[in-house]
């Protein structure tokens, strides 16, 4: 992926560093004031175009989002990947809090539907692509047993999830991956970033990461109560919570699975998550990587 950034950069940045590796690779060049977002392949142009359109639309609504750097032609195809360019926001204290996330989600969910088409929330194609990719890798680091379990879990829950999305009365614009890792402090503002999973779907989906964090990541119940008070709802009391949470946790696990070949820590954490999913253990502690 680094080659894609070098191909896209003019001039080549001398201070490039990896910020995050997941569905995309994010590289920062503070000297240029740029973040290079590199997709895994150039076959996801529609999704990348949606990310850019969403960012531009949010800014036009006055919502605190991350500006794309549109002085560069984008998305740019380089080394078989798609590169987009975004404003670099340097780390700043205090770190964004759950209160910031609650307020941003409350405001996001109050916005009208955008004036461009958005997909219906559907995490299953991405999960299945991850499983296919892992299974096709020579000497894959993920066992066939684990791949089969995850594929079966997708089969088991997909139809019920789609029915819930269609029938849920509280459907609208959702961020799709709403957690504190997708917040940035920019002076006295907090920005909501990363629009890859933006869709139309049950607004409950955006509340799941915080609710799940109580059981999985040790979030204090008092902090969760404050989040619910600020947002105005508690997703654990909403219809379909358990199903939505199961699907969300499958997504979290298949996301982590992508890094198993490259990280001993990811491999260890993946094993922990697989055990809890197999055993139906909803309170086993997970670790954020």
Automatic annotation (TrEMBL):
Listed InterPro entries: Aminoglycoside_PTrfase, Kinase-like_dom_sf
Pfam family membership, one: APH
UniProt xrefs under SUPFAM superfamilies: Protein kinase-like (PK-like)
Taxonomy, superkingdom: Bacteria
Aminoglycoside phosphotransferase domain mapped to chain residues: 32-238
The protein, known as: Aminoglycoside phosphotransferase domain-containing protein
Source organism phylogeny: Bacteria, Bacillati, Actinomycetota, Actinomycetes, Kitasatosporales
């Amino acid at each position: 992926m680094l080659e894609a950034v070098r191909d896209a950069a003019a001039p080549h940045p001398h201070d490039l560093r990896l910020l995050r590796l997941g569905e995309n690779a994010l590289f920062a060049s503070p000297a240029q004031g740029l973040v290079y977002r590199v997709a895994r392949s150039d076959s996801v142009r529609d999704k990348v175009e949606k990310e850019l359109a969403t960012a531009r639309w949010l800014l036009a609504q006055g919502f605190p989002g991350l500006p794309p750097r549109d002085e560069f032609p984008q998305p740019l195809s380089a080394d078989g990947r798609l590169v987009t360019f975004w404003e670099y926001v340097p780390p700043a204290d205090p770190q964004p809090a759950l209160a910031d996330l609650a307020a941003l989600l409350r405001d996001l969910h109050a916005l009208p539907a955008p004036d461009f088409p958005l997909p219906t929330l559907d995490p299953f194609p991405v999960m299945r692509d991850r499983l296919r990719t892992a299974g096709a890798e020579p000497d894959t680091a993920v066992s066939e047993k684990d791949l089969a379990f995850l594929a079966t879990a997708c089969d088991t829950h997909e139809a019920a999830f789609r029915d819930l999305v269609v029938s849920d009365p509280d459907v609208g614009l959702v961020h799709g991956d709403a957690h504190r890792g997708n917040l940035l402090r920019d002076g006295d503002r907090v920005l909501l970033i990363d629009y890859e999973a933006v869709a139309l779907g049950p607004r409950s989906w955006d509340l799941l990461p915080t609710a799940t964090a109580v059981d999985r990541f040790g979030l204090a119940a008092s902090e969760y109560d404050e989040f619910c008070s600020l947002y105005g709802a508690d997703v654990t009391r909403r219809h379909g919570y358990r199903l939505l949470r199961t699907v969300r946790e499958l997504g979290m696990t298949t996301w982590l699975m992508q890094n198993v070949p490259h990280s001993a820590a990811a491999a260890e954490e993946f094993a922990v998550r697989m055990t809890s999913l197999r055993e139906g253990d909803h309170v086993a502690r997970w670790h954020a990587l």
